[in-house]
Amino acid sequence: MYHGARPGWIEVIAGVMFSGKSEELIRRVRRGIIARRRVQVFKSHLDARYAGLYSVSSHNGTEVDATPVDTAAEIFRQVRPDTEIVAVDEVQFLDRGIIEVVTALAARGVRVIVAGTDTDFRGEPFGAMGDLMTVAETVDKLQAICVICGDLACRNQRLVDGRPARYESPTIMVGGRESYEARCRHCHDVPRRDEDQAVLELRAAAR
Ligand code: ADP
Ligand code: ZN
Questions:
Q1: Residue 195 has pLDDT above 70, yes or no
Q2: Residue 52's domain is classified under what CATH number?
Q3: Less crowded by CB within 10 Å, the N or C end of the chain?
Q4: Residues 196, 190, 22, 8: is their CA dihedral positive or negative?
Q5: Which atom of ligand 1 is nearest to the CA of 17?
Q6: Which of 11-25, 49-63, 105-119 has the lowest mean pLDDT?
Q7: What separation in Å is there between the alpha carbon of 189 and the centre of ligand 2?
Q8: How far is CA 185 from CA 22, 26, 189, 202, in A?
Q9: HSE on the CB side for 202, CA within 13 Å?
Q10: Closest by CA position to 91, among listed 107, 108, 113
């Protein structure tokens, strides 16, 4: 945990799916509650079916409600004036306004903890995660375990009907039939269309 002399900073917990980001976020929130800080937890979500409150619970029975939000502005509107810690899970799904929101909260003395998947299924930057990592005081990048080789996993493998999803498929598939696995760089597989592959090889040859 970052210990600034004055309150107000940003902590990012980044990494692939299954790397333990939510566990780490919950751990920090729980410790904040033990320290009797006023905490608010938000979770970005894309699916209107989960429009109720969701809660994060601790071993000793402490529970903290998390408010589902669709936009960064909703977080800003809902943070109470006396809140000391703001935590946001699944932050990669939020709009780029989140950078301004976390910066404004930190400036007024709030400890901001955000957790999110920093790379999409292609292994490319996901949403505002890269910029959030830039403006933060601390960045913890977690790894999962590659389900193919057992090495450390830094990629999200998207599978559609059990097969690797193609590069061209959309970044966010809402209500899709896809599933995800944690994989290392070498076991990660994102097939491209043949013509794309040819262009890549031509570019490589021209270098
Ligand atoms: P995240 O928020 O990063 O998706 P969670 O905190 O929800 O991660 O879950 C982390 C937990 O997932 C681990 O403690 C472990 O029990 C479980 N898990 C399942 N598959 C894997 C994997 N391939 N590598 C590591 N942990 C995994
Ligand atoms: Zn591997």
A1: no
A2: 3.40.50.300
A3: C
A4: negative
A5: 4
A6: 49-63
A7: 10
A8: 22, 28, 9, 23
A9: 6
A10: 113
Average pLDDT over residues 121-134: 97
What burial class does residue 49 get, using C-beta atoms within 10 Å of its C-beta: 0-12 exposed, 13-18 middle, 19+ buried? Answer: exposed
Tens digit of pLDDT for each residue in 70-103? Answer: 999 999 999 999 999 999 999 999 999 999 999 9
Domain count, the chain: 1
Substitution site in 16, 18, 149, 184 for ligand 1 pocket (most atoms within 8 Å of beta carbon):
18
Is 142 domain-assigned? yes
The answer to whether position 130 is within a domain reads yes
Range of the domain at 201: 9-206
What is the 164 CA–ligand 2 centroid distance (Å)? 14
CA 99 to CA 18: how far, in whole Å? 24
For ligand 1, atom 6: residue with the closest CA: 20
Contacts of 36 (CB under 8 A, 6+ apart): none
Does a structural domain hold residue 149? yes
Q: Which active-site residues does the annotation give?
A: 90
pLDDT of res. 205:
82
What confidence tier does 204 reach under pLDDT thresholds 50, 70, 90?
Answer: confident
Residue with tokens 């994060």: 56
* Band of residue 193 on the pLDDT scale cut at 50, 70, 90: confident
Q: Is residue 1 part of a domain?
A: no
